[in-house]
Specification:
The protein folds into 2 domains: 188 residues, Periplasmic binding protein-like II (D-Maltodextrin-Binding Protein, domain 2, 3-Layer(aba) Sandwich), CATH 3.40.190; 107 residues, D-Maltodextrin-Binding Protein, domain 2 (3-Layer(aba) Sandwich), CATH 3.40.190. Helix 3 packs across helix 11, helix 3 packs across helix 12 and helix 11 crosses helix 12. The N terminus is likely disordered. Helices cover 37% and strands 18% of the residues. By secondary structure, it is of the alpha/beta class. The longest helix is centred in the N-terminal third of the chain and has 18 residues. Strand 1, helix 3 and strand 2 form a beta-alpha-beta unit.
């Protein structure tokens, strides 16, 4: 699994007008099966890679098909979500292949939301996203009522750490992830402190250790996610989400909404006539598809391109359906 660039490096990249393409660890991938004479038609495909393995699975499967079937030169760029959207305007990013809502970014970059018009929607991925709070299975079995948020304060002492002092620790992942957790803790009057683990991998390792060693842990997590097949984390029920309950980020006191995950591309890329845009539009798969490729990368330690090839070779009908969209 590729190691994500640090936030400091990403911040530095964001200050440059070009986002320092070569420094982002992108680079084009080479493959002997690239069709002759098609590269000029497709050109470059600049694919943001946000810092979680499910996204990486999406990106490399689409990128592998774009390169081997359409002759594109694919540039992968390890960027957080905010920096990725900023790249639409200067041409350094063409595609965010898995978007988790981000109404604040839509308002900034999408014309129909009042933004500058550099970003447009390219349709759904087929994945259904869920964000929430989770505990390891052993805790849900030993403390059955812990899955109701109203009971969390009586268990806060179990979750105390050196980072949270007298409060319980609620672990979050990367600070760039979609999260309402600090507001939720405050507005639900919970005796917890949000502590950022720093990455998806850090969350996974912490939950794995918590289950193995029967250590208390509560934290932010999400689906689709291959790790849930290894450790079936148990979802904590927050106040039910209703339309608009999260409209004011500082006053959020409800669960996360369901996320039909979608694809966002630059307006310039959408208007380019590249077959890669049609491929991105046609790309659609299931949570099980993504989880399988993510498992190849994260658990089986396959190179992302090798993982993509393995899935593509095993799913020719799905790939052919995407390609029909790119050739129409």
């Amino acid at each position: 699994m590729r190691v994500k660039r640090t936030q400091a490096v990403l911040a530095a990249l964001a200050t440059t007008s070009t986002l320092a393409l070569s420094a982002c660890g992108g680079g084009s991938i080479e493959n002997e099966s690239t069709p002759a004479g098609t590269a000029a038609d497709c050109g470059d495909l600049n694919m943001a890679v946000n810092p979680w393995v499910g996204y990486e699975a999406d990106a490399h499967v689409v990128g592998y098909v774009a390169e081997t079937k359409l002759g594109c030169t694919v540039n992968y760029k390890d960027l957080d979500e905010q920096v990725s959207w900023k790249g639409f305007g200067n041409g350094s990013v063409d595609v965010v292949i898995e978007n988790w809502g981000h109404p604040e970014l839509q308002k900034k970059y999408m014309a129909d939301k009042g933004g500058d018009g550099t970003a447009v929607n390219a349709g759904l991925t087929g994945n259904d996203g869920v964000i929430g709070w989770y505990v390891p299975p052993w805790m849900a079995e030993k403390y059955p009522d812990i899955t109701d948020w109203k009971n969390l304060n009586k268990y806060a002492d179990l979750f105390k750490t050196s980072e949270s002092g007298s409060q319980g620790t609620l672990y979050d992942g990367d600070p760039g992830f979609v999260t309402n957790d600090e507001a939720l803790v405050k507005n639900l009057d919970l005796n917890y402190k949000v502590v950022y683990a720093g990455s998806e991998n850090a969350l996974i390792e912490s939950f794995r250790s918590a289950e193995k060693n029967k250590q208390p842990m509560i934290g932010y997590f999400y689906e689709p996610q291959w790790f849930l097949s290894e450790v079936p984390l148990v979802h904590v029920n927050l106040p039910k989400y209703t339309e608009g309950c999260d409209a004011d980020a500082e006053k959020v006191a409800c669960d996360y909404p369901p996320y039909p995950l979608d694809k966002i591309v630059s307006k310039k890329f959408a208007d380019s006539g590249s077959p890669a845009f049609d491929l991105v539009k046609a790309f659609n798969w299931t949570n099980d598809d993504q989880n399988l490729v993510a498992k190849y990368i994260a658990e089986d330690q396959m190179d992302p391109d090798d993982a993509a090839k393995k899935w593509v070779d095993a799913n020719p009908d799905k790939v052919d359906a995407w390609l029909q969209g790119s050739s129409s």
